[in-house]
Amino acid sequence: MRRLRWPTAPRLRAWLLWSAIYVVATVVMRSAREETGDSHVALLYLLIVLGGSAAGGRALGFALACAGFLAIDYFFQLPYDRFSVAKSLDWSALLVFLATSAVTSELVTRALAQAEAARGRADEVARLSHLGSQALNAGRAQDALATLAEVIRATVGGVECEIYATDDGAGAGAPAAQARVAGERHAASDDHALVAWVAHHARAAVVQADGTALRASAPGTDEDAIGLSAPDARTVLVPLQVAGRTVGVLRLADRLRMPLDPARRRFLSALAYYAALGVERVRLVAEAERAEGLREADRLKDLVLASVSHDLRTPLTAIKALAQSSAARGDENARVIEEQVDRLSRFVADILDLSRLKGGVFPVTLEPNTAEDLVGAVTRQVQPLLAGRTLATSVDMSQPVLVGRFDFVQTLRILGNLVENAIRYSPPEAPVELGVTRDGDALVFVVADRGPGIPVPERAHLFEPFYRATNSAPDVGRAGLGLSIARHLADAQGGRLRYEARAGGGSSFILELEALDAPAPEAEEAL
Amino acid sequence: MIETPVVPRRADAQEAAVRARTILIIEDEPPIRRAIRNALHEMAERVIEAEAGAEGIDLAAAERPELVVLDLGLPDVAGLDVCIEIRRWANMPIVVLSARAAEQEKVLLLNAGADDYVTKPFSPRELAARVRAQLRRGLAGGPPAAQSLVAGDLVIDLARRSVERAGRPIHLTPLEWDILRTLVAHAGRTLTHQQLFDAVWRRQFGNPQQYLRVYITNLRRKIEADPTRPQLIVTEPGVGYRIDPPR
After folding, report:
1. Is the ipTM of this complex over 0.95?
2. Which residues of chain A are within 8 Å of residue B227 when distances are taken between CB atoms?
3. B163 in contact with A at a CB cutoff of 8 Å?
């Protein structure tokens, strides 16, 4: 910022004032030159040089020193009123005066420049804190970003300031915020490729007056975000980073060239940091809003499921009750209606459960449970479906009770579905088998039948919703959701459900759950 | 010692045996209310109806019915709160109707004092059977619980603390006996896991509680003819256990 400039208005005043003081002092001392000694004269001129340097800078100080030199020689050294040097001693005195004046002037000027720089920094800090408060105070994150753009444009100068939000260098669309001098037209819309480049590489770039772009070869630093020397920059693009992640690009454009001196670079770096925080804030706010929206959608989904469940079951209950009382009076059609209501009820329950499972709103309660208790519950549940058929269970009673950590209700549904399927898809004379064993850390349940099995090409689709084996009867009373639900329920408890063709024909479904060691049996016997 | 009465085999005779003076139905949907009334009218001299929770509580207080059928999806008060409110001053059986088959909800209801629950869509026959069972318990005098239970060749005698199968004594551990005694004392009623914990461990919290299901399984191995097809101790999945009194 230190540059020799043509005197501006305050400087001109200093020149005039100190020239006048010089003239007055010379006239006063001239009248009393017989009484005053050389040293007094020199000291007074030195004082004037000092004052002039402080008020008007180096040039004024130097000019006053020269003038003092000439005045001492002309007015105050013998012979008077003539430019002459009588003795070599006088020469040296004159030169010492000149040197002292020059050094003094230089020292004063430097001290002043340092004070000036300090004032500049204080100013910078004040502007940055203003920017910070603007960024934090604005109510909406989007407004804060717009304010930031305007403050940056006003402080750094330039006609246009744009802030682009980019998602991890994925490219930039329209600017997230922009500020422009009133009446100024949008300058360069062809910078988009450059904005994307800056975002992707996290390095700065400038566009020069002739339209060519210069790209930084290395990332910028905290002190200098630009990291690129460009004497003729018209547009500057700086990557905006938060915690090492590029969140956006700051684009600053002017009609004239922008001086990118170190102070301005440093300032721009600090501004870029604020802009980055602004962009990040906008992103976080948007994310929070999206999360809130998702939560709301989830809550609504639960609500809809609950009310659909209620609204569907209520009429089904009424139809079933009416059909049952008609059937009791001997109406055969009513019995069919009742059966179909049961079928529809199961279908509704399955669809609701599947949507709950897929929506991830299906809580499982993992507790220590015994395999035998579960097998007993399965046999009780499928009893009405057996209609004279056999469900052969195998549990080794000579061994301690088999214990596992699983959700009793959901596992009952898995095994219930598997056994029900086995009953439906296998010939009536062949027994369906349900067995359980312990294999290492797993409790292994096997449901096996002697049905037709699943053809190899269809095995991959077995657990998909609405799948039904092509070799099965066209209507076996279910919607084809049982296996899909069973697989989801097994996954939800950290278990595994898979299919294996059974040796000797038929299917076997294998469910693996976490096994636990049974507690030590009670020591004492009673009674 | 009160023996469980020998029950006549003919169902008609059994139905005739239980008849209440008043049954209260609290249900907001008219068609369902009608279906319930049709299913239960033979079991009571009078069936009264309420279509909201507050009205139901008032009727229960004013009419003192021998049994309440309570729907959970009421427009004004949560069914659970109706149940809790009635239980504050009355102990007639409460049978709950629920559209949701959530086990957690059933547990809450039973812990709150409901006696049984039926999940919609229910069959009127099933509801009638549940209500009849509750009425039989309630009209028999309720709390003075059974002191012994006979199921086939199995005899459980609470007073003598003995269990015998075909005259041969069966040895139980103290915990197994406590569990069996609690279930027999409340025969016909589902006890939630929590209710069993409280009765057997008497609110001592500790590790053994989580193995209630293991103790039940061991108990079944001793007293059930086929432990994989339990006939005596019935599992209510996710809710608890029940001993069905033999018929």
Report:
1. no
2. 372, 376, 395, 397
3. yes
